[in-house]
């Protein structure tokens, strides 16, 4: 995220916050990393298959143990 000054000049990147990240559109492909909104690559089919498999396995494991919630990629999660 760049700060735009009058006349179109740009200054150094601004620090983005968690509320800034949450305010992005759902289909915005950026992630918040150390105060910077970074573009991420669009996942391919192999990646999505791996995610789906891991989510299924983790969900079954967590449910059997009452161990919490399993979320798939695409959810905005604060770690």
Q: Which features characterize this protein?
A:
two-stranded antiparallel sheet; 19% strand; 79 residues; 4 strands; alpha+beta; disordered N terminus
Please give a structural write-up.
By secondary structure, the protein is α+β, with helices and mostly antiparallel strands. It contains two helices and four strands; from the N terminus they run E-E-H-E-E-H. The strands form two sheets. The protein has a two-stranded antiparallel ribbon. It has a two-stranded antiparallel sheet with strand order 3-4. The radius of gyration is 17 Å and the shape is globular. The relative contact order is 0.12. Mean pLDDT is 82; it is low at 1-5.
Short description:
This protein is α+β, with helices and mostly antiparallel strands.
């Amino acid at each position: 995220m760049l700060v735009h000054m009058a006349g179109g000049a740009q200054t150094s990147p601004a620090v983005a916050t968690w509320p800034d990240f949450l305010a992005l559109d759902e289909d915005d492909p950026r992630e918040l990393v150390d105060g910077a909104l970074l573009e991420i690559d669009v996942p391919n089919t192999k990646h999505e298959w791996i995610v789906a498999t891991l989510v299924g396995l983790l969900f079954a494991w967590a449910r059997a143990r009452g161990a919490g919630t399993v979320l798939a990629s695409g959810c905005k999660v604060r770690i």
